[in-house]
Design brief:
- This protein is mainly α.
- The protein contains 13 helices and two strands.
């Protein structure tokens, strides 16, 4: 595409690489703090990764659909892509090495990362095709404030609502009611039903950034920095009343993560698209097959965790045999394992890119 913006591809690829890195340490018992999620309220660098991807999904929607007509053919393509994403996510959740290679229905976790990406992509695309940016701003504000009101004022079975991990947390209560034991944890799911509403806004905020990048505005870098800074300030102020929380995908979390996304993208945009500095090509390669690379990393990691080697798994055996040494801390060994995994998938992405193999999901 002639109007393709390099920084968007680099941002997408870097986000996928980080997703793989934080998901595949050598051992979860020894991980440096920045590579772990916040225990509940607050955020770490790792908590930025998934919202960054939903954000860039929104930005990419602008490039993909800005000249599309909102007709049955376009809706069909959006729906098919949505179902593919959800299907891949359900496959990951249901797969097992035991014949017939799928878990019993009662043991399948239905929410998930790919499922959320699919749902968010569907609604963000439909909204983008049917409303102008001013209406989308109104919808985003309505969703964020509405979610805040729901989570903080609606009693749960006669008990005052809370934002803690408790039975009277509205989002947690709804997930338990709908999915029962099909949750990530017994009392909450980070990709649950109610929190999908504000996660759609993460993508809408990415759409606004896409509109800025494709506009005829001058000084786009300054605009992105200004927008990102404003979101950070508003998000942190809102944190006082509605705490930043990834598991609940709170409204303050949406604004803070989108704020950081704009600032990071502004920096990459300035260096690559404005100044013409060549860097980050490996991330561009990963971004070209982002979903496929992420799916393969998750699928292979799951298989390695299932294959038994002695009293541990193939993953555990490989980590303990190759990476654990007396002269290194366990945290460093764990990180080196993750970096090795990332290097493998970056090389795979490079090979696919060089052979012009692009898998559209």
């Amino acid at each position: 595409m002639k109007d393709r913006i390099l920084s968007v591809d680099i941002f997408r690829g870097a986000t996928i690489v980080l997703m793989i890195l934080v998901n595949t340490p050598g051992t979860w018992s020894a991980v440096y703090a920045p590579f772990l999620h916040a225990k509940w309220h607050g955020y770490t660098p790792t908590d930025l990764v998934f919202p960054f991807f939903l954000f860039i999904v929104g930005t990419s929607i602008v490039f993909a659909y800005k000249n599309k007509v909102a007709d049955s053919n376009t809706y069909k393509k959006i729906t098919i892509r949505t179902l593919k994403l959800i299907g891949l996510g359900l496959f990951l959740g249901a797969f097992t090495l035991s014949f017939p290679f799928f878990k019993d229905f009662a043991d399948i976790r239905f929410p998930g990362v790919l499922q959320r990406i699919g749902v968010v992509f569907f609604f963000a695309s439909i909204l983008f095709l049917n409303f102008n940016w001013k209406t989308l701003v109104g919808i985003a504000i309505f969703f964020l404030i509405g979610y805040w009101v729901l989570m903080t004022t609606i009693p749960v079975e006669g008990v005052e609502s809370t934002l803690d991990r408790a039975p009277n947390n509205l989002a947690n209560w709804l997930d338990v009611k709908v999915f029962g034991t099909h949750n990530y944890k017994a009392d909450y799911d980070p990709e649950g039903l109610l929190s999908t509403i504000p996660s759609i806004v993460s993508s809408l905020l990415g759409i606004f950034t896409g509109l800025i990048l494709t506009s005829k505005q001058e000084k786009k870098t300054r605009i992105l920095i200004g927008v990102g800074g404003a979101m950070l300030i508003i998000g942190h102020v809102w944190d006082i009343f509605f705490p930043i929380n990834k598991a609940l995908w709170t409204s303050s979390f949406v604004l803070v993560t989108a704020g950081w996304a704009n600032l990071v993208l502004a920096l990459i945009y300035y260096l690559t698209d404005v100044k013409g500095i060549q860097f980050g090509s490996i991330f561009r390669y990963a971004g070209a097959n982002a979903i496929v690379v992420y799916f393969l990393s998750s699928f292979i990691s799951k298989i390695m965790g299932m294959i038994k080697v002695g009293d541990t798994s193939l993953h555990g055996w490989l980590f303990n045999t190759v990476y654990v040494h007396d002269f290194m801390s366990m945290q460093l060994s764990s990180l080196l394992y993750g970096l090795t995994v990332v290097t493998f998938y970056c090389l795979l992405a490079y090979i696919l890119y060089q052979r012009r193999l692009f898998f559209k999901v």
